[in-house]
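Lab notebook, bench 4. The sequencing result for the construct came back, and we need a structural model before the next group meeting so we can plan mutations. Quick request posted to the team channel:

Model the 3D structure of this chain.
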Amino acid sequence: MTDLGFVHRFMPGKKPAAPVLLLLHGTGGDENDLIPLGHELYPDASILSLRGKVLENGMPRFFRRLAEGVFDLEDLKLRTEELAQFLDAARQQYGLRENKLIAVGYSNGANIAASLLLRDPRHLSAAVLFRAMVPFVPDAPPDLTGIAIFLSAGRQDSIVPSANTRQLSSMFETAGAAVTMHWHPGGHELGRDDLDAAKLWLEKLPLS
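Done. Here's the predicted structure in token form:
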């Protein structure tokens, strides 16, 4: 669907009151990429999967960057605000007013989810962030009390340095979030261990 400002797919879950997974792909992905992962992570959940609106050499992204790891902060702010507006509209469109929303993002998608948490966290109850990095440093920490965050990073990741991941984790914890870290032994790619750890973490959350 192309209404509400984003090309997206909505798939109702098996249990109407179950959480909704907000799926946010990496560079070059689309609204279909993470759906199998979403079904595996939380089979009962509804799926709300978006396509990024920014193109980089023809590849969809959720915000512009100036170079590898160097973000266009003005565009990031604009795109994060657009995402927040979309989520408000989607809750009304799909009757999700009482459902908890869990962001599941990979790489660029994880980064805009992190930006949403730091800029406008009211939308999310939890987040699963694969290969996220610090999107920006806020002037003051938001209130992330009650929000659970799963961070999964690669020890050999050439794109996201380990120190950056630890900085992001510290930012979330300082803001009051409950952060769980998982370290994948490889690089920026996802491994079976990432998915197994995230699924186990989700199963233990008091969200359903």
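The radius of gyration is 15 Å.
Will bring this to the meeting.
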